[in-house]
Write a structure and sequence with these properties.
About 55% of the residues lie in helices and about 0% in strands. By secondary structure, the protein is mainly α. The protein has 2 domains: about 70 residues; about 140 residues, no CATH class. Helix 7 crosses helix 8.
Length: about 210
Amino acid sequence: MSVPSEKFPKYAEYLSTHPDAELEDWLEARDSWRDQRHADQIARAQQADARTRTLSQRTQTFSAKMQTAVQTDPDLLSKVHPRLLQTKPLSGLAPDEPPTFGNFLVEQILASEHPEKLLLHLSNDQEVQRLAALDPDRVIRELAKIEYGLGAAPSGPVPVPARPSNAHPPVKPLGGSPPHDADTPPGDDADDEAHRLYWNQKELARRRRG
């Protein structure tokens, strides 16, 4: 959705680009601009509200699942790498925050039926680096296998989670070549919303397949 300019040109300025315009034409264009600007503001507010509600619901569900998991394993959180608890999910990013691979992983954890399994598995720095080299579909399949205890993907065994270290592994920014279809990640010139839409579609597809 395009965002109108913050200020509509005065009549004299409008004539520089619309030399044949009458005053009535300018008034009509100004009113249309105001209506569009108001509609865009409402749409952005509704989208932000929807994202906030969805994030709140997911967070509550995640917290309830983790409470149950901690009751089973009181030492669970001490085995989880701090970076996973400090990184925002995709749905929690502000509009001006560029999404990263780390945000994508935490989004999968937040939406998982078994978040404790993914938290423990992704506490292994080498495993995160391995996943970062894969395409998004493969990452989602790998995480689904871990979540439901189906074993490692055919490419090789998944390392056993090691004790978390203090080192923060490099995070792979989202991007790449320009998209050719819905299965190709957005390119470097794509905006944040395009990245969020792409990863959210991948998450929806994963949950449908699950």
